[in-house]
């Protein structure tokens, strides 16, 4: 892959860096649940392999929905595996850039979580977000 192509890609950290027991010692996956209520719709942008997505899905309950979005296909597959294993049916996972959310109906989201997203974006997106 050419250097110019690598610069344009979003950065993907190893999946274990996103969801592990050490991270859970310092950060609670349900820490953002105080912002949502049962039945609401949430978008978790840059969700990784589900650190916050499962907690949010539990908080919004079966009548709510979590759009879990990440540009890393491996992270989305890991999320889907964990969600299925734990019986969550209210998570809709998408391999997509946070800049392309055409699968989410306008005005339908009650809360957006984008924790750590900017540090993982390709320079062209980061510059646009800062300016």
Structure description:
The chain has 131 residues and is an alpha/beta fold. It has a single domain, classed as Rossmann fold (3-Layer(aba) Sandwich), CATH 3.40.50.150. The protein is 34% helix and 15% strand. The chain is built from 6 helices and 4 strands. The chain has a 4-stranded parallel beta sheet, with helices on one face. The chain starts with a helix and ends with a helix.
List keywords for this structure.
disordered N terminus, 6 helices, 34% helix, alpha/beta, 131 residues
Poorly predicted segments: 1-8
CATH class: Alpha Beta
Mean pLDDT: 79
CATH homologous superfamily, by name?
Answer: Vaccinia Virus protein VP39
One letter per element, helices H and strands E, the order comes to HHHEHEHEEH
CATH topology-level name: Rossmann fold
What does the overall shape look like? globular
Q: Please give the order of strands in the largest beta sheet.
A: 3-2-1-4
Counting H and I runs of at least 4 residues, what is the number of helices?
6
Roughly what fraction of the amino acids lie in strands?
5-15%
Percent range of helical residues: 25-40%
Instruction: Determine the structural class based on helices, strands and strand pairing.
Output: alpha/beta
| Gap from first CA to last CA | 29 Å
CATH architecture: 3-Layer(aba) Sandwich
């Amino acid at each position: 892959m050419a250097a110019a192509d690598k610069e344009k890609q979003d950065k993907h950290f190893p999946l274990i860096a996103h969801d592990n027991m050490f991270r859970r010692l310092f950060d609670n996956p349900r820490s953002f649940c105080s912002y949502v209520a049962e039945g609401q719709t949430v978008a978790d942008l840059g969700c990784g392999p589900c650190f916050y997505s499962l907690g949010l899905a539990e908080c919004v309950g079966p009548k709510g929905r979590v759009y879990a979005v990440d540009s890393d296909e491996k992270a989305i597959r890991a999320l889907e595996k964990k969600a299925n294993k734990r019986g969550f049916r209210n998570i809709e996972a998408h391999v997509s850039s946070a800049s392309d959310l055409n699968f989410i109906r306008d005005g339908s989201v009650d809360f957006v979580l984008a924790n750590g997203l900017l540090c993982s974006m390709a320079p062209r997106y980061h510059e646009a977000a800062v300016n």
